[in-house]
Specification:
alpha/beta; five-stranded mixed beta sheet; 13 helices; binds pyridoxal-5'-phosphate
Length: about 375
């Protein structure tokens, strides 16, 4: 099956009533038929039919042996990073999600040796790899939008016996399947593209091997971080349209990237050619702030992957809390604007940006002008 068909028909699950949509098993416990043995399901923290249906779909989409759904993307990130013990070396990419940075600081305080490496340079990774337990990265990274060669990194990690873990949230399995390129574990914040509607928080780990899956399932049951049945059900619903949403948002992102690149007030566009998130610089912090504050269709928000577009200034928002000593690379440009493109009409989105570029007053501009008049009057 091709991916579009796969999304609609899903992983094959048996239902006694042939339900068209996955049934929601909103239950904590399952009665057992005997006192001395467990049936297929016994307690929802451990396993639940709705969540299992979701996990079968996630595993199929990411081409893994199996998947585990977690209460958030961060719960999935944390479960993966806890596979490295104190005293062991953990290599990480140098442009990571802010929440992941926060968890890494915690792991460091527990004695894990965290080392940063530029994963866009396989040669640098090759030198750093020997003896490392895990290499953890995002590609394209956010917000710098830098691309790493996963196939090359996969070969290097196999040679040195290092686990390769890829946070694939930015592109979703619709566009990239890191396991096919050599990753051992893939992480998804399902809060983003997979859900697609900004109405739930969820995460997943997809594993290449049965051994990794089993160890992670044991840990998830022990720590109680599994996704609730209702959120599993809601996520299954959102995932049906992943393909059409990604194609539409990506087409609009490409159009906006082209128009921005041709605009005289834009100094640099950061767009890897795939996905729905892009960045651009204006060389003028005030103009970048005006764009963020005065566009009407883009809400000021740090997330992505929803139906509505959003805009942010990463330097002042999502990455403001990342200490400079952790930023191995040059600090983020203060004028970098990030767009997360949704499902609106692309020309409407462009008109909204162009209006602010042209210095025409926006909603906020008008309100501020009124405020200034009132203040003067008082
Ligand atoms: C949002 C995000 C996370 C964290 O996911 P939550 O569902 O918010 O906990 C992790 N990695 C990336 C790349 C993200 O964008």
């Amino acid at each position: 099956m091709n991916p579009a068909t796969r999304l609609v028909h899903g992983a094959h699950r048996e239902d006694p009533y042939s339900a068209s949509a996955p049934p929601l098993y909103q239950t904590a416990t399952f009665a057992q038929s005997r006192s001395d043995a467990f049936d297929e399901f016994d307690y929802t923290r451990t396993d639940n039919p709705t969540r299992r249906w979701l996990e079968a779909e996630l595993a199929q989409l990411e081409r893994g042996h199996g998947a585990l759904a977690y209460a958030s993307g961060m719960a999935a990130v944390a479960a993966a990073l806890r596979r490295v013990a104190p005293g062991e070396r953990l290599l990480v990419g140098d442009d990571l999600y802010g929440g992941t940075e926060r968890f890494l600081a915690l792991r460091e305080s527990e004695g894990v040796i965290v080392e940063r490496v530029d994963t866009t340079r396989p040669e640098e990774v090759r030198v750093a790899l020997p003896g490392a337990r895990m290499l953890y990265l995002e590609t394209p990274s956010n917000p710098r939008m830098e691309v790493s060669d996963l196939a090359a990194l996969g070969r290097l990690c196999r040679r040195s016996g290092t686990k390769l873990v890829v946070d694939n949230t930015m592109l979703s399995p619709w566009i990239q399947q890191p396991i096919e390129l050599g990753a051992d574990l893939v992480i998804q914040s399902c809060t983003k593209h997979l859900s697609g509607h900004s109405d739930l928080v969820a995460g997943a780990i997809i594993a290449r091997s049965p051994e990794d899956l089993e160890a992670l399932a044991f840990e998830r049951n022990a720590s109680g971080t599994a996704l609730a049945p209702f959120d599993s059900w809601l996520l299954l619903r959102g995932m049906k349209t992943l393909g059409v949403r990604m194609e539409r948002a990506q087409a609009t992102a490409r159009t906006l990237a082209e128009k921005l690149a041709a605009h005289p007030k834009v100094t640099r566009v950061r767009y890897p050619g795939v996905g729905s998130v892009l960045g651009f610089e204006t060389g003028d912090r005030k103009l970048s702030e005006a764009l963020v504050e005065q566009t009407k269709l883009f809400s000021i928000a740090v997330s992505f992957g929803g139906v509505a577009s959003s805009i942010s200034l990463p330097c002042a928002m999502s990455h403001a809390s990342v200490p400079t000593e952790r930023q191995r690379k040059a600090p983020l440009p203060p004028d970098l604007v990030r767009l997360a493109v949704g499902l609106e009409d692309g020309l409407d989105l462009w008109a909204d940006l162009a209006r602010v570029f042209d210095g025409l007053p926006g909603r906020l501009g008008v309100e501020r002008a009124h405020e200034a008049v009132r203040l003067h009057g008082e």
